[in-house]
Amino acid sequence: MCGIVGYAGTQNPVDFLLRGLRMLEYRGYDSAGIAVQDDAKNLRIIKAAGRIDALAQLVRNYQPQGQPKGYTGIGHTRWATHGLPTAENAHPHTSYDGAVAVVHNGVIENYQSIRTTLKQKGIEFKTQTDTESIAHLIAYYLQEDKSVRTADELHRIVRLALTQLQGTYGLAVLFRDFPGIVIGAKLGSPLIFGCGSGENFLTSDASTLAGYTDKIITLADHEIIEMTADDYTLHHRDEGIVNRSIEVLDIDAAQTDKGGFAHYMLKEIFEQPEAIRNAMRGRLDYDSATAKFGGLNITAQQLLAVRRILMTACGTSWHASLVGEYQIEMLARIPVEVEYASELRYRNPPLDQDTLLFAVTQSGETADTVAALREMKRRGYTAMSICNVIGSSIAREADGGIYLHAGPEISVASTKTFTSQCTVMALLALYLGRLRHLNFENGRRIIAELERLPGLIEAALQTNDAVKKIAQKYAACESFLFLARQFNFPAALEGALKLKEISYIHAEGYAAGEMKHGPIALIDKNTPSIFIAPKSYVLDKTISNMQEIKARGGPVVALTTEGDKETPELADDVIALPEAADFLQPIIYNIPLQLLAYHVAVERGCDVDRPRNLAKSVTVE
Ligand code: AGP
C-alpha cells in the first residue's frame, strides 16, 4: 500500500507530485505529504491527515513563501501500518538534523531494533512510524562520512543504510545539501523510474506518468537509482551498475480519468465489454479449436504432464480462481485447488512435482501472493501468473504468464479485472481441455460461446436502471445474503465482497445448498437474499432454496434467465439476463451484482472509489 512519487527537473515539482498523489490515492489515502527542495538548500515539508485535497489546500496556503518552489521533490499518500493516520505520522519523514527526507512504501520489520540503536546514539524519534528510522539512518551515515560530495557517493551512503533494513520498501530520498538529486530504492514494493526530457520521475505506478513520459525502467528488488534532471544511474545494491534498457509504456492519459462517469468504479464496470475483448484478443485459435497464449513459456508436452493445478490469490482474485477451478475441472478434467495466498505461504502442503501453480492477481504486487509465489518457486514448482499490471513483481517473477490487458483499474473495488480473470480462466480451461480429451467440435462450441461474451456483458449492463431501483429499495438493510450454486457460487461470494467493501453492509456469500446449515437463521424481513438463478442443471435446486427463504419471510432478489417464467414468481424483485453457457454465467451474472453494490454505496453516501480502511494494492502481510 502507499503511493510514492519523485521528481527531478527544471519545473516546480508541486504539480506533478500532487497530480501523481491523486492518482495514487487508490494505494492508500489516510494522510499525505510532499517535500520540495528549494534553491536555498531548504527542504520544504508539507503534510496533512486525510485525503490529497487536504494536502493540496495546505500547499496552496503555504506561508510565508507561497507555494514551495524548487526543482526536486518527493511525495507520499499513506495507508497506515505503524502509527495513527495523523499529519505527524504522514510522510515525508525527516532526519534528526533535517538533512534527509524520505517517503516509503512497505514495512521495515526490524525498525524497533534500529530505533533502539539510534536512540542510544542520542537520536530522538518524533513519530511511531517504521519509516522515520530510515531517514535517521541515512542522515547518521551521511554525518559519519563528511567526504560525501557527489551523487555516486550519496548512493553509497543510502546503500549502507539499506543493508541495515529488513522488510520491504519502495523509497524516494531527498537531501537538503545535495540539490537536484533524488535517490530511489526498491525491495518488495514497486518503484518505476520515468525518463523524461530534462526531467526524471519516480513513481509506484506507471499510470501517473501519462502525459509526462512513456519511457520507463521498472526497478527490480535490491536496485537503487540516482536521478537528476537530465541523468540517472541504476545500481544493484550488491553488484554495481546495472544497464537496463528503457521500455516504452503504452498508456493513454484518458485511461486514467473518469471519462464522464461519477466514479471510477462505474466507469470500470462499463468498460467490461472492451476489457473482455482485450482479454480474448488474439487468443482464439479457430483452426485448432483452442485458445493460445504468448507468454506461458511452457510446452504442450510439459502441460500434459501436469496432474494438478494450484491457484493462489487474495480477495476478488481468489474468487476468480474459484471460477477457474469449476471451468478447468469441467473442460480439462484436471484437479484444481484454490488456496488463499496468506495461507499457502505458511502452509506446507504435500504436493507432487507435477503440480502447476498459478498466482492470480490484478496488481501483481499483493504481498501475500508475491510471498506464496516465491515460496512455491523456492520449492521448485513451475509458477505462472495471471495478472493485469504489466511489469509488476508477480508478472516478472513468474516462469510464464497471461496478462489480462484490462487497462488500469483505479477504483479499490475490483470489477473489470474480476470478469477479465474469469475470461482468461475460461480460455485456459479451453486450452488445457483441447490438449486432453476435449474434441474439436466442443472446442469450436466453446469458442462460439466465448465470442458472445462481450455482447452478453453489454446486455447485462443495460440492467443498470433496474438494478438502481432495487438498490434504492434495499439500501437501508444492514445484512444481505448472496446465494448461488456451482459455477455461480464464486460470483455470489464476489457479490457479497463487493457490497460489504464499498457500502459497509454485512454481506455473506454462500453456496445456496449450504444456506440451510446455519445462515438461514439470519433470515428476516430486513435481510434480502440475492439469488443467482440462471437456467442450468441446478436451477430446480436453487428454486427450492428460494422457497425456503420465502417461507421465512425473507425478501428475494433473483437474477434469472430471460424467458424463465417460474423463478420470477417466487422473487420480490427480478433482473433477467440473456441465456449463456453455464461456465460463462459467473461473468455475466456478476455485472448486476457490481451495479447493485455501486448503487447501494452511492445511496448510503459512501466514498465508492476509496472505501474506508482499504487500499487497492495490499502490499503488507
Ligand atoms: C476487491 O475488490 C479488492 N480489490 C481485493 O479483494 C483484491 O482483489 C485483493 O486485495 C487482491 O488484489 P490483487 O488482485 O491485486 O492481488
In words, what does this structure look like?
By secondary structure, the chain is α/β, with parallel strands linked by helices. It binds 2-deoxy-2-amino glucitol-6-phosphate. The site of 2-deoxy-2-amino glucitol-6-phosphate (AGP) has 15 residues, from helix 9. The site of 2-deoxy-2-amino glucitol-6-phosphate has 15 residues, from helix 9.
Topology summary:
Layout (H helix, E strand, L loop, with lengths): L2 E6 L5 H11 L6 E7 L5 E7 L2 H9 L11 E7 L14 E2 L5 E6 L5 H10 L11 H13 L6 H12 L6 E7 L6 E6 L4 E4 L4 E4 L11 E4 L4 E5 L4 E5 L3 E2 L5 E2 L15 H7 L1 H9 L3 E2 L4 E2 L8 H5 L3 E6 L1 H18 L3 E5 H4 L10 E7 L5 H12 L3 E6 L5 H5 L2 E4 L12 H20 L4 H22 L2 H11 L4 E6 L4 H15 L2 E6 L17 E5 L5 H12 L5 E6 L4 H5 L2 E5 L7 H19 L18
Parallel strand pairs: 18-19, 18-20, 20-21, 21-22, 23-24, 23-25, 25-26, 26-27
Antiparallel strand pairs: 1-4, 1-10, 2-3, 2-4, 5-6, 6-7, 7-8, 8-12, 9-10, 9-11, 11-15, 12-13, 13-14, 16-17
Helix pairs in contact: 3-4, 4-5, 7-13, 7-14, 9-13, 9-16, 13-14, 13-19, 14-19, 15-19, 16-19
The structure holds 2-deoxy-2-amino glucitol-6-phosphate.
The site of 2-deoxy-2-amino glucitol-6-phosphate has 15 residues, from helix 9.
